[in-house]
Design a protein that fits this description.
Helix content: 25-40%
Strand content: 5-15%
Largest sheet: 4 strands, antiparallel
CATH superfamily of one domain: Sporulation related repeat
Structural class: alpha+beta
Shape: elongated
Number of strands: 4
Strand order of the largest sheet: 2-3-1-4
CATH class of one domain: Alpha Beta
Length: about 230
C-alpha cells in the first residue's frame, strides 16, 4: 500500500469516527445524535466500530454497519439449513422394492403412421448492445465537466500539474470503482473559482452548495477522508 493510499484510508477512518455519515458535521465520541440533521449516530466504541475501522483500512471504503447483521443472519440461516438436512436424512427409511410381474409380448397388427414433418422456426439473435457516446465518455472515472456550466462539486483530491495526468486518472478510476458517481478530472487553470495549476479529481455536478454538502459524507466513507465541496465556475 502506498503512503498516499494509507493516508487517505486513515483520513477515512477519522472521518467515519468523527463526523455524521449523513451530513458530515463534526461529532463527539459519546454523542448519540447529530446536532445538525438529527441522525442517530453509529457507536465509536466496541466490537462493531473496531471491525468498521479494519474494513476501511483493508478495502478503503465501508458499506455500513448493516453488513455485520447480514453476515450473522446468513450464518444462522446456513446453520439452520444444515441441521434441517441432517434431521431429514436421519428420519429417512429405505422403501421396500417391489418387482413388477413380467409382461408377455403381444403381437398386434397395427397400422403405422409416418411421423409428420417438423419445421424449425428460424431463431433471431439480438444484436449486441453498443454503448452510446455519452456512456463511454462518463464511465471509468473519466467524466468531463460540461462546457459553459457553473455549479458545485465534491473535490476528492488535487494534484499539482507537474506530476502529470496519469495519477489523477488512476485516483478517479478507484473512486468510480468504490461506487462514487460522476467522477472525473478537471484542469483547475480553466476555472476562475479554482486555484490554477492543479488536476482536480471530482465527483458529482450539483446546482447548489447544500446539495453538494449533503454528499460529502458519502465520499469520505468511500475512502476519501479529505473530500469537500467546491464551486466550479468559469
Amino acid at each position: 500500500m502506498t503512503t498516499s493510499t494509507h493516508d487517505e484510508r486513515e483520513a477515512a477512518v477519522a472521518a467515519a469516527d468523527g463526523t455524521c455519515p449523513r451530513c458530515g458535521s463534526p461529532r463527539e465520541p459519546d454523542q448519540r445524535y447529530c446536532l445538525e440533521c438529527g441522525l442517530a449516530l453509529p457507536e465509536v466504541h466496541g466490537r462493531v466500530p473496531a471491525l468498521r475501522r479494519r474494513w476501511i483500512r483493508r478495502f478503503g471504503w465501508y458499506p455500513g454497519d448493516w453488513v455485520w447483521l447480514s453476515v450473522l443472519t446468513l450464518v444462522v440461516a446456513v446453520a439452520g439449513a444444515a441441521v434441517s438436512i441432517a434431521v431429514t436424512h436421519s428420519r429417512a427409511r429405505p422403501a421396500a422394492v417391489q418387482t413388477a410381474p413380467p409382461v408377455l409380448p403381444t403381437t398386434t397388427a397395427a397400422a403405422t403412421t409416418p411421423p409428420a414433418p417438423t419445421t424449425t422456426a428460424p431463431t433471431t439473435t439480438a444484436a449486441p448492445h453498443k454503448p452510446k457516446p455519452h456512456e463511454a465518455a462518463t464511465g471509468g472515472g473519466r467524466l468531463v465537466w460540461p462546457a459553459h456550466v457553473n455549479g458545485w462539486t465534491i473535490v476528492l483530491f488535487s494534484y499539482p500539474k507537474t506530476v502529470g495526468v496519469a495519477q489523477p486518472r488512476a485516483t478517479a478510476l478507484r473512486a468510480a470503482q468504490h461506487g462514487l458517481a460522476k467522477v472525473g478530472v478537471l484542469d483547475s487553470s480553466r476555472y476562475a473559482s479554482l486555484q490554477p495549476g492543479y488536476y482536480v479529481v471530482f465527483t458529482g455536478i450539483y446546482g447548489s452548495k447544500s446539495d453538494a454538502d449533503a454528499s460529502v459524507a458519502t465520499a469520505r466513507q468511500a475512502g476519501f477522508g479529505g473530500a469537500y465541496s467546491r464551486q466550479v465556475a468559469g
